[in-house]
Amino acid sequence: MDGTLIDQTAAIVRCYAEVIQDMGYPEPDLATIHRSMGGPMRSTLEIFLKEDEIEEAGKRFRARFPVIMFDGLIVLPGAHELVETFAQARIPQAILTNKHGPTARDVSRHCGFDRHIPVCIGNKDTEYSKPDPLLTTHVLNALEAEIGDACLIGDSPTDVATAKNAGLPCYTVITGAHSQDELLDAGAAAAFDSLVELKAAFSL
């Protein structure tokens, strides 16, 4: 979702920064927060906080983020067109994210993705997080899809690892926090400038 279909960076980074400062720390480096995104919330908080502070910080983040989460939200170019094209071709789609599940579904509804993507699985919906292949298996089962018939589209090394761990190809876009070289070095099958370019490469 984040960095692939939407750009919600401003609200996410702001929320992390506010929570970290609320925990008694100085203002964190915003670029570090940005580059850490894509993994579980814990992986970002661990950069700045002590282990015994993570759970409380996570609660504060989940309480704060819904208040500001639509501030500055951008649907990335080509997102709706790609989703609608897959839907017209009767290709099942799911959103697989480390964003908190209920929040992810709120964003999906807000942006209109839920019209064509009924399956949206996020953090806390299962006991797994990306890149655990058990999470990917759970999503494929929800789609009634086989590994050999599926691929993952993402924007981060975490997405690439998620795909590789499940035996899926990963096609990426550089609209998140990572460069083409970083994504290809991580093992992406391809790295495109945008979803518009990706759609064209898929001949859709």
Structure in a nutshell:
The chain is an alpha/beta fold and 204 residues long. 49% of the residues lie in helices and 13% in strands. It has a three-stranded parallel β-sheet with strand order 5-6-7. It has a two-stranded antiparallel ribbon with strand order 1-2.
End-to-end Cα distance: 20 Å
Query: Total helix count?
Result: 10
Computed structural class: alpha/beta
Element order: H for helix, E for strand: EHHHHEHEHEHEHEHEH
Low-confidence stretches: none
- Side-by-side strand order of the widest sheet: 5-6-7
Residue-averaged pLDDT, rounded?
95
* β-strand number: 7
Rg value: 16 Å
Global outline: globular
Helix content: 40-55%
Strand content: 5-15%
Largest sheet: 3 strands, parallel
General description of the model:
The chain is α/β, with parallel strands linked by helices and 204 residues long. The protein contains ten helices and seven strands. The strands form three sheets. Strands 5-6-7 form a three-stranded parallel β-sheet. Strands 1-2 form a two-stranded antiparallel ribbon. Strands 3-4 form a two-stranded parallel sheet. Helix 8 (157-166) links the parallel strand 5 and strand 6. The longest helix is centred in the first third of the chain and has 15 residues, at 54-68. It is globular and about 50 Å long. The model has no long low-confidence stretch (mean pLDDT 95).
